[in-house]
Write a structure and sequence with these properties.
It contains 3 helices and 13 strands, in the order E-H-E-E-E-E-E-H-E-E-E-E-E-E-H-E. It is α+β, with helices and mostly antiparallel strands and about 240 residues long. It has 2 domains: about 5-115 and about 225-230, predicted glycosyltransferase like domains (Thrombin, subunit H); about 120-205, predicted glycosyltransferase like domains (Thrombin, subunit H). Strand 2 and strand 3 form a beta hairpin. The chain is globular, with a radius of gyration of 19 Å. It starts with 5 loop residues before the first strand and ends in a 5-residue tail after the last strand.
Length: about 240
């Protein structure tokens, strides 16, 4: 269960080329894990966990990546127009997203699916059960909710059901006695580095179901998301 607000930075780059100029791959033990330079006036401590929402021209939907502040820099004496900011190192399990951003930015991937609904970064206990076996009295499988929107979510866990499976999920919110229950279908699964998980697409039987979930998202955002900055970047001179 989240105990502290999520530190969120929203960054918009001019285009893919600009994003690539602000993104670098690490060497050594962190090889393959990218770092995004984020222009910031606020000085964040080294090691601070953050989530970056990335946007740029050519990217159909914003992409949310998790990382931590690896280094900071200020404008130099000789180049005062250069932006000060921080380097956000992506977590190992976010390597796939970093690769995806690089492919879109370089033009290697041009048919990325557009996501119409924004996702909220969270870290909440969740339990799921196959709908077809729910009546048989089997046990719910534990997992963690990584992000959620009105129409879907990403769940981290083990022993995942096959793509296309209908599941019933219970979300543990604020240690409430009654968890939030919703039905969905597995859209995809993945296993990469330290992260194994599945994408769920929710089934809403009526408008009231969407309204209840929207109310939940609004409450989660008030409690757990702290926006550090929203930056529209410009190329440094």
């Amino acid at each position: 269960m989240l105990e502290h607000p999520v530190n969120l930075i929203e960054v918009e780059f001019d285009d893919g080329e600009h994003f690539l100029s602000s993104y670098s791959l690490a060497d050594g033990p962190d090889s393959g894990s990218g770092t995004i330079f984020v222009p910031l006036d606020q000085e964040l401590p080294i090691g601070r966990s953050v989530i970056v929402h990335v946007r740029f021209g050519g990217l159909e939907s914003e992409v949310m990546v998790r990382g931590y502040v690896a280094w900071r820099k200020g404008p130099s004496f000789w180049h005062r127009k250069r932006l000060k900011g921080a380097g956000v190192r992506l977590l190992a399990e976010e390597r796939g997203k970093g690769d995806f951003l690089m492919r879109v930015a370089s033009g290697a991937l041009q048919d990325a699916v557009k996501r119409r609904h924004r996702r909220l970064p969270v870290d909440l206990p969740i339990a799921w059960h196959l709908k077809t076996t729910l009546a048989a009295g089997g046990r719910f499988q534990p997992g963690y909710l990584v992000d959620i929107g009105t129409h879907g979510a990403f769940v981290r866990g083990e022993g995942l059901p096959p793509v296309g499976s209908a599941v019933i999920s219970k979300i543990d919110v604020h240690r409430q006695v009654t968890p939030f229950v919703i039905e969905g279908r597995v859209s995809w699964t993945r296993s990469f580095a330290a992260e194994t998980g599945m994408g769920l697409r929710f089934r809403h039987p009526d408008a009231a179901s969407i309204e209840r979930l929207t109310d939940l998202l609004d409450d989660l955002e008030r409690r757990y998301v702290r926006r550090i900055a929203s930056v529209v970047t410009a190329r440094s001179v």
